[in-house]
């Protein structure tokens, strides 16, 4: 038994310690930001903060929560996440159901599947997309955050593969009872697919919450930005015009601590749903399959 | 006849998604004709701009900056693909040795997390901790006597930072498929090896690693399609004019030439070059994955 040998035990001890260290390395930057966000301006500016707050204060959070631009971008982000996720899931259910049928049952199935998959393989690129958005009059419109990404082909295929695993007997019983396909989808397929839908819903929520480039590209009014775009302009581009802090206050307040607070608040919803996400995503992750 | 009567419902169900794809995926594909035009957004448009044939592509292969950008993209993406395969492969094997379920689960929870945070958040954090002006990392290096490193301001260090932080973000998530493959190894193989007195190292070498190779082949082949995807979100949030020479990639270059400089036709051509190369590689790689491991998407 190798488990009992001394060299293996020594290896195992070092191995576990090493892996735990790597794990900590993955969250250390986030802990540092959290520590900075709760530290006093002077300590943060003098680079005294490591992984624990120095002179604990919540002033950076008060400032952030009282910033109307931050609040409006938060609201836009919530709206796009909720509407976008509902629309994406609805469209994915409707499209995945017929495409999960064998081509003997639904003749057009393969053609449709390729029409969907081709969009994953090839794209017109940024510029033609930008021109299309402009011609459609979607510039500076909230719906530009929703409509272009409404169909998520990747999620649709995951759901399609899941629907294939639903026992055929359930469906046949419903069809013999005279139910149409819409009825079968809603009262047979959706109830048994709830765990899969939950996983895909969480993925879609994280996607929408994290999306920032569409806001930057298609919205020109800072008040319309979703939170991720707002954070991008403030933290990465260091644009202070939307901070609503007058120069006098500016001196009192460390930009470092406010930025840290904003970074943390931006990540918070993802951190909150992360445990639920982790519970499900291992099953939902495998796109496609290796057939034995 | 019943089946035929009902198939209209199938078509109706797909229709909404199909309309979205036509407008937001296929219509832009038609827009690639701009790559062959001297496109002017105002006063020309797709129907009014003059045709210039392959002029934009010739410019792309003649301009030094666009050639440099293609090389940067390839270089960064290739290293990302290699390390995003090696790191999860190794990590999964090491994690497999941790027998305490609680410890194993804790480690997994920690390493999967960065995958779900956006590059805006992580970019903000990296700008902060990699700063030469008292950033956490340079302070730690200072403590062991190393001079501050200009991670995001010096070309080669920028490339290193981009690749290292990408692997840091994604290696945990990439581990999942390998852990699934490890769970599928037939335990009787290990039992037989035990009986023969094979050490754990020998077992790893002759059972574990060979069992993971098919999955590594699938993951590696399928990632070939990303050979020109060096990571727009990451680089856009980390780069600055100081590192354009070593760190500018096709996607950021297209964005700047189109949106900032208004050279729409040229930018479309560069984007189209990327799309075509990527498509060719995706088609080839999926064929290989299908032949070698019988992998299918749907």
TrEMBL record, chain A:
PROSITE patterns: ABC_TM1 (PS50928)
Keyword flag 4Fe-4S: no
Family according to the record: Belongs to the binding-protein-dependent transport system permease family.
Topology of this chain in the membrane: Multi-pass membrane protein
GO biological process assignments: transmembrane transport
InterPro entries the UniProt entry points to: MetI-like (IPR000515), MetI-like_sf (IPR035906)
Full protein name: Carbohydrate ABC transporter permease
A Pfam family the protein falls into: BPD_transp_1
Keyword Membrane: yes
Keywords, in A-Z order: Cell membrane, Membrane, Transmembrane, Transmembrane helix, Transport
Location in or out of the cell: Cell membrane
Domain ABC transmembrane type-1 positions: 70-274
TrEMBL record, chain B:
Keyword Cell membrane: yes
The family this protein is said to belong to: Belongs to the binding-protein-dependent transport system permease family.
Keywords: Cell membrane, Membrane, Transmembrane, Transmembrane helix, Transport
InterPro entries for the chain: MetI-like, MetI-like_sf, UgpAE/MalFG_permease
Organism: Paenibacillus nanensis
Cellular component per GO, a single term: plasma membrane
Biological process annotations from GO: transmembrane transport
Membrane topology listed for this record: Multi-pass membrane protein
Transmembrane segments: 12-36, 69-95, 107-130, 171-190, 211-232, 264-286
PROSITE patterns in the record: ABC_TM1
Domain ABC transmembrane type-1: 70-285
Superkingdom of source: Bacteria
CDD domains per the UniProt record, alphabetical: TM_PBP2
Protein's recorded name: Sugar ABC transporter permease
Localization annotation: Cell membrane
Gene3D superfamilies linked to this entry: MetI-like
């Amino acid at each position: 038994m190798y488990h009992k040998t001394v060299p293996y035990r020594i290896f195992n001890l070092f191995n576990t310690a090493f892996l735990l260290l790597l794990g900590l390395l993955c969250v250390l930057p986030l802990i540092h930001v959290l520590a900075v966000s709760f530290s006093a301006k002077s300590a943060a500016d003098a680079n005294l903060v490591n992984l624990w707050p120095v002179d604990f204060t919540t002033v950076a959070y008060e400032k952030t929560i009282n910033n109307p631009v931050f609040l409006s971008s938060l609201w836009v982000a919530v709206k796009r996440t909720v509407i976008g996720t509902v629309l994406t899931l609805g469209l994915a259910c409707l499209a995945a159901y017929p495409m999960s049928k064998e081509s003997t049952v639904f003749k057009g199935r393969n053609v449709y599947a390729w029409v969907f998959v081709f969009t994953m393989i090839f794209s017109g690129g940024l510029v033609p997309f930008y021109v299309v958005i402009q011609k459609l009059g979607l510039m500076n419109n909230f719906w530009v955050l929703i409509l272009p990404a409404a169909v998520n082909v990747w999620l649709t295929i995951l759901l399609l593969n899941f629907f294939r695993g639903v026992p055929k007997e359930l469906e046949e019983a419903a069809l013999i009872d005279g139910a149409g396909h819409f009825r079968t989808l809603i009262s047979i397929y959706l109830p048994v697919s709830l765990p899969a839908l939950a996983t895909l819903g969480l993925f879609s929520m994280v996607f929408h919450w994290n999306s920032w480039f569409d806001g930057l590209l298609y919205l020109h009014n800072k008040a319309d930005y979703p939170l991720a775009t707002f954070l991008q302009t403030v933290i990465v581009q260091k644009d202070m015009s939307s901070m609503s802090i007058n120069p006098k206050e500016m001196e009192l307040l460390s930009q470092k601590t406010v930025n840290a607070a904003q970074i943390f608040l931006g990540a918070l919803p993802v951190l909150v749903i992360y445990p639920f996400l982790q519970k499900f995503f291992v099953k939902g992750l495998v796109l496609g399959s290796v057939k034995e | 006849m019943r089946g035929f009567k009902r198939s209209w419902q199938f078509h109706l169900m797909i229709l909404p998604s199909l309309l979205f794809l036509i407008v937001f995926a296929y219509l832009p594909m038609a827009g690639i004709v701009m790559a062959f035009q001297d496109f002017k957004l105002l006063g020309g448009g797709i129907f009014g701009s003059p045709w210039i044939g392959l002029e934009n592509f010739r410019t792309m292969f003649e301009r030094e900056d666009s050639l440099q950008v293609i090389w940067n993209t390839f270089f960064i993406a290739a290293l990302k693909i290699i390390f995003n395969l090696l790191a999860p492969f190794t990590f999964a094997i090491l994690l497999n040795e941790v027998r305490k379920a609680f410890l194993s689960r804790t480690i997994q929870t920690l390493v999967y997390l960065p995958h779900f945070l956006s590059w805006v958040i992580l970019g903000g954090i990296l700008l902060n901790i990699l700063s030469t002006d008292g950033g956490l990392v340079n302070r730690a290096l200072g403590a062991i006597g190393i001079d501050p490193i200009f991670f995001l301001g010096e070309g080669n260090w920028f490339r290193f930072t981009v690749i290292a932080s990408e692997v840091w973000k994604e290696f945990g998530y990439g581990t999942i498929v390998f852990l699934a493959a490890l769970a599928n190894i037939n335990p009787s193989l290990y039992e037989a090896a035990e009986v023969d007195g094979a050490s754990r190292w020998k077992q790893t070498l002759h059972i574990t690693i060979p069992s993971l190779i098919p999955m590594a082949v699938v993951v590696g082949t399928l990632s070939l399609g990303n050979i020109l995807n060096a990571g727009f979100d990451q680089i856009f949030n980390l780069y600055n004019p100081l590192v354009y020479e070593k760190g500018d990639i096709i996607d950021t270059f297209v964005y700047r030439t189109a949106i900032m400089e208004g050279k729409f036709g040229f930018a479309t051509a560069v984007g189209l070059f990327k799309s075509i190369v990527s498509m060719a590689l995706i088609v080839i790689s999926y064929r290989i994955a299908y032949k070698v491991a019988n992998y299918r998407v749907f």
